[in-house]
Design a protein that fits this description.
Elements: E1 17-18, E2 25-26, H1 27-40, H2 44-50, H3 80-89, E3 94-95, H4 97-102, H5 105-109, H6 113-118, E4 121-122, E5 126-129, E6 134-137, H7 140-153, E7 160-164, H8 170-183, H9 197-207, E8 224-228, H10 232-235, H11 239-248, E9 253-256, H12 262-265, E10 266-268, H13 273-278, E11 282-283, E12 287-289, H14 296-316, H15 325-331, E13 332-333, H16 335-343, H17 347-354, H18 358-370, E14 374-378, H19 380-383, H20 388-401, E15 411-414, H21 421-426, H22 435-445, H23 457-465, E16 471-475, H24 479-482, H25 486-493, E17 498-503, E18 516-521, E19 530-531, E20 534-535, E21 538-541, E22 546-550, H26 564-575, H27 583-588, H28 590-600, H29 607-610, E23 617-618, E24 635-636, E25 654-659, E26 664-665, E27 668-669, E28 679-680, E29 685-688, H30 690-695, E30 703-709, E31 715-727, E32 734-738, E33 763-769, H31 774-777
Parallel strand pairs: 2-10, 3-4, 7-16, 8-9, 8-14, 9-12, 13-24, 14-15, 16-17, 17-18, 25-32, 29-31
Antiparallel strand pairs: 1-28, 5-6, 5-18, 10-11, 19-20, 21-22, 22-23, 25-33, 26-27, 29-32, 30-31, 30-33
Helix pairs in contact: 1-3, 7-26, 8-26, 8-28, 9-20, 14-17, 14-18, 14-20, 23-25
The chain binds ligand MGD (2 copies) and molybdenum atom.
Length: about 775
Amino acid sequence: MGKPSDESAHGASGEASFEPDDTPAGGWGSLRAVARAIRGQMAVARSAEALPRVNQPAGFDCPGCAWPDPRHTSSFEFCENGAKAVSWEATSKRATPEFFAAHTLAEMWEWNDHALEDAGRITHPMAYDPMQDRYVPVSWEEAATRIGTALRALPDPAMAEFYTSGRASNEAAFLYQLFVREYGCNNFPDCSNMCHEASSVGLPEAIGVGKGTVQLEDFEHADAVFCIGHNPGTNHPRMLSTLREVSLRGAPIVVLNPMPERGLERFTSPQDPAEMLTGRSVRIASTYFKPRIGGDVAVLKGMMKWLLDADADDLAAGGEGLLDRAFIEEHTRGFQALADDLSATSWSSIERKSGLTREEIAAAAGIYAKAERVILCYGMGITQHRHGTQNVQQLMNLLLLRGNIGRPGAGICPLRGHSNVQGDRTVGITEKPDAALLDGIRRTYGFEPPAAHGHDAVAAIKAIAGGRSKALLSLGGNLAVAMPDPQATFAALRTLDLAVHIATKTNRSHLIPARQMFLLPCLGRTELDVQASGPQSVTVEDSMSMVHASQGRLKPASPQLRSEPAIVAMLARATLPASKVDWEGMVADYDRIRDGIESVFPIFAGYNTKIREPGGFHLENAAALRRWNTPDGKARFLVAPGLDEDPASGPDLLTLATVRSHDQYNTTIYGLDDRYRGIKGGRDVLFVNPADLAALGLAADAYVDVEAHREDGLPTGRVIRRLKAVAFDIARGSVAMYYPEGNTLIGLDDHDPRSGTPGYKSVPVRLSASVDRHDDAA
Ligand SMILES: Nc1nc2c(c(=O)[nH]1)N[C@H]1C(S)=C(S)[C@@H](COP(=O)(O)OP(=O)(O)OC[C@H]3O[C@@H](n4cnc5c(=O)[nH]c(N)nc54)[C@H](O)[C@@H]3O)O[C@H]1N2
Ligand SMILES: Nc1nc2c(c(=O)[nH]1)N[C@H]1C(S)=C(S)[C@@H](COP(=O)(O)OP(=O)(O)OC[C@H]3O[C@@H](n4cnc5c(=O)[nH]c(N)nc54)[C@H](O)[C@@H]3O)O[C@H]1N2
Ligand SMILES: [Mo]
């Protein structure tokens, strides 16, 4: 491809080839991939030291995903993508001051995302020098002073944005929100705004809490598990061990996913010597349905419609019915409105919208109805839609109909993304603080925290674009690349007066010059964190509300690195000379940060004692105890109008989802392969159903241009050129390409109005054959 512009800012990728093979997930392929990843980072010694400590009682929490650890084991659980994440952080490559002296930002902008991070760990605090267009070394003290001065100079604290990516520990995130609130605003754009915000908004309206209700043990008791819109083989690989056990017990696993995902089909466990030696594998999905992208609400309404009809038939035949009437009566509101909506919805519209037949939907519903205890798992395939919030609520409706919540083996299981994205929320990263949070801060720290709602991620970019915000601090992440519409997002960020990036490695967000810009290198999860009172642990909360300690042991990548809590405290002190908070005291001993968390959030009672137990402790979840923290104390059925989880688009348009490859961690690109999907050596591919290719007169392997369209069918002018069309067994009418490249097709306004979650999985597009152009042919 040509040189990266703002429209296609991810740089060169190779020429992709497509060679499908049907090897099960896991197995020797996983071990080989790990060996390659470790060698590629020249991190053999550091990885050999680090890997055995992943997710161990005295080790560190894997930065790979938020799936919980089996509580009673101490054996190292092998995970290919966890190992990639660890060796990427434990790399022996370094981005030193000499490295930054050798490259201008304009030059680095032309590199691809892989090359930028592959420069290695940042070793020294750096400040941007606009005269040279380079980062130059700066002392920590000078950086803090300049940042504090710039923040104090803003006419209004609400003119600064404070982004968090979900790797930050509870301790770092808590200090960060305390700093920002004492400074005077609630502008907390967060990676979860792009991820599970639809759950955080949708679930509380239904059941009073915004988190999953199951624990790992529940999978031992479930009679059926549904996996909807998530890809565990790649994104939460340790879940495959759990699903394998479910399958071996003979409990059905039903998948709803427009793409065939290998990890949901068959798995050879690297933990199982017999499977590894014989090449045997375990089937994961007992039934694999491929609805079209955006067809989930139709499938779910179809399942509920079948259930109500079957229930009526059963009652008429003298049976007890299929619904849990006692539960519905005692614990819920809104059943009749749901039943009315379902009877008014026709099977023909359900079939058309879902892409599944009535028989297929009945089969899925039949499995649901037969199982005494059901867990529904879901990921980005549900949340990243224009009506993601209502999608989540339809899942909950289905569970409530048979009382599948608040008893062993049943409940809802959102697969959270980053390893501590859930914990960050629990300890106060939210743009809409509630009264309890504000009271807790006031009581504990004696200052008046601001109550006015702040910005989420989309609002933050818009405020910057509109000149209403002039500063951006990022506690990790790669905001510019993770957000939709790189053209608008990059242009907005170029207007900043101050940008501060607390990071481990360089990424594209760090290359967008602000008038003053700083790169502050921090310790990673794997590294030893020593403060005045000695070595420190941090704590994280997984997808199932288990909080546990994490302690790195590796020698830090550079003696200059500071921990995230120490950096946040330093910025707070430099910005707030009259602060009421004992920042030094808390950083000297993280137990004191946890005491503060416990004081602000009583749910953490006994924090410092409990995290010293191996495996940590569970944060109480009221809904799992059938206590509903809703206004009337009941769980609610919430009706979604119609069947469109995205604005309806023209009949001749396809719907595009952006997905992760097996060789990436969000915007971090480890390599150009996507092994399970048969892609090698490149990322510029588009997965298309062969029948759709034929209908468009396109050959497999043809180069296609993809243009995004509006709901009314008009083109948006957002185009990605020269993707290689891969004939793939994806649902008809649906196409997929990789994230973040696909962000060029998505507008900043293309989000769920209720949760702000961008519609990353629902772009109406039209395909056309690429015309060869000179600059592309090179
Ligand atoms: N190795 C690795 N691990 C990761 C990450 C990573 O990038 N790499 N990212 C982390 C983060 S932050 C997150 S949020 C999670 C993401 O984990 P996932 O939720 O698994 O993320 P995606 O790759 O976006 O894929 C979602 C799945 O949704 C399907 N899908 C797309 N559209 C639809 C639809 O309309 N309906 C249905 N039912 N399915 C659909 C796709 O085919 C794909 O299988 O993983 C976390 N873990
Ligand atoms: N099109 C499309 N866009 C999407 C998505 C999608 O599915 N499709 N998914 C969305 C989702 S679910 C999410 S969560 C966001 C992700 O958005 P982010 O969380 O902002 O992005 P990451 O790629 O995870 O951030 C990677 C960077 O984090 C820094 N980093 C790594 N480890 C550490 C650490 O320990 N400390 C600190 N301080 N920094 C560290 C490194 O500098 C690295 O470059 O993207 C969203 N964007
Ligand atoms: Mo995420």
